[in-house]
Amino acid sequence: MKSKRSRVQDIIVSFDKGILFSYIGLCLIGLLVMLDITSMQSSMQNFYRHLVFLGLSFVTVVVVLYFFNLQKLRFLNKYMILAVILLLILVLVQKTEVKGATRGLRLGFINLQPSFLARFALIFFFAGFLENKEQELRNAGLKEFLIGFMPLVLYTIVIFVLVYMEKHLSTLIIGGATLLGMLVYAGMKKRLIVLILGLGLVAGALVILKGEEYRSDRLKTFLTYNLFVPDRPEPENSSKEYQVRESLTALTSGGLLGMGVSRGRAKHYFLPEARTDYIYTIIGEEFGFLGAFLVLALHALIFFKAFKLAERQENAYYKYLCAGLAMNIFLNALVNTGVAMSILPSTGNTLPFISYGGTALLVDSASIGVILNISTRRRQL
User: Fold this and answer.
1) 318 alpha-carbon distance from chain centroid
2) Does 14 map to a domain?
3) Quick check: is 248 in a domain?
4) Contacts for 6-12 with beta carbons within 8 Å, 24 or more apart?
5) pTM
6) Judging by beta carbons within 10 Å of its beta carbon (0-12, 13-18, 19+), is residue 70 exposed, middle or buried?
7) What pLDDT digit, counting tens, does each position of 267-288 carry?
8) How many domains does the chain have?
9) Is residue 318 part of a domain?
């Protein structure tokens, strides 16, 4: 008589509620602001599209939280990298240009931006690599690093070159900072960190000075309107400065409590990209300093709780994965809010969980799902 083998099943007992509620809070704020912006337009189509992607994002979080075994799915990391490279190449082949940049891949009614997927995939790849070579990284000089971590270096360079060709500089900045942060967190030697940082700054300077003219114009505008720059040039009141000037005008109009939803001026087509790059400005104008502070505080709460969670992990793969995803989301939020306040030069990137944009919202929500998955306490039945 055959013995029956009992089926072992993992049951989730708990997970980090603070991260989940912060995520939901940011999504609801984004939905409210999107309704506010879209309501003064002739069509509500953008709001409905955002609502659909928000629903898909919630489903993504639940699926990743409850049904993904991150350890068993590690073998997919390399395939994710290869798929991202293929998608980035297809973007360049398709050549769908939007506002001077080639970033989107048309798949029917969906406009996919693989550059967002690239950051996500690289974090997974780095986490797996760092787990296997954690001690080797801490002892590696430049030669040892280039030899021992050659796949990491090559895949990163290929992806970054393709993203640069698509003119998505903000992804390069945030992605590069995130990956360097993971290497610092893993214990890379300081001289190597300084060397990589120096190479990154040189490359950035060359891109700005020798690349497209609009990048140097943005830097000049930043130097004009940034309060921390001594001997600032006089404003020219040209069209090149319009976006930054309108953003600062709207933010300073908000005061402590804001002008109110019905009184905001910037959303009435005074501020381009109000739904995406400058949505933080709309929040600051209509909900004031307190509203803007709440949004940044919720992003910070997710970051610090996720980083604390990473510190508690005995599994090195989970540790680096959690820290990398947390840094990616928070750096993205810092860049977006910094641009809105002219603390950073203008660059096109969205505010996580709030800005309009399907790919970014889905990828960031998947990141939250992974972090929540790592935070779970389970028992077997």
Assistant:
1) 19
2) no
3) yes
4) 8/380, 8/381, 9/380, 9/381, 10/378, 10/379, 10/380, 11/378, 11/379, 11/380, 11/381, 12/65, 12/66, 12/376, 12/377, 12/378
5) 0.91
6) middle
7) 877 787 788 888 999 999 999 9
8) 1
9) yes
CB atoms under 10 Å from CB of 317, counted, come to 20
Q: How far is CA 316 from CA 17, 19, 84, 132, 311, in A?
A: 23, 21, 24, 9, 10
DSSP category for residue 7: P
Q: Which residue has the higher pLDDT, 61 or 43?
A: 61
∠ Cα 255 260 264 (to 5°): 85
Q: Classify strands 10-14 and 105-107 as parallel, antiparallel or unpaired.
A: unpaired
- Whole-angstrom distance, CA of residue 89 vs CA of residue 156: 15
pLDDT in tens, 312-337: 999 999 999 999 999 999 999 999 99
Range of the domain at 198: 77-351
Query: Is residue 298 included in any domain, yes or no?
Result: yes
**Nearest alpha-carbon partner for 192 in 241, 257, 260, 144:** 144
The full DSSP string for 230-267 is: TTPPPP---GGGHHHHHHHHHHHHHTTT-S-TTT-SII
Within 10 Å of residue 10's Cβ, how many Cβ atoms?
12
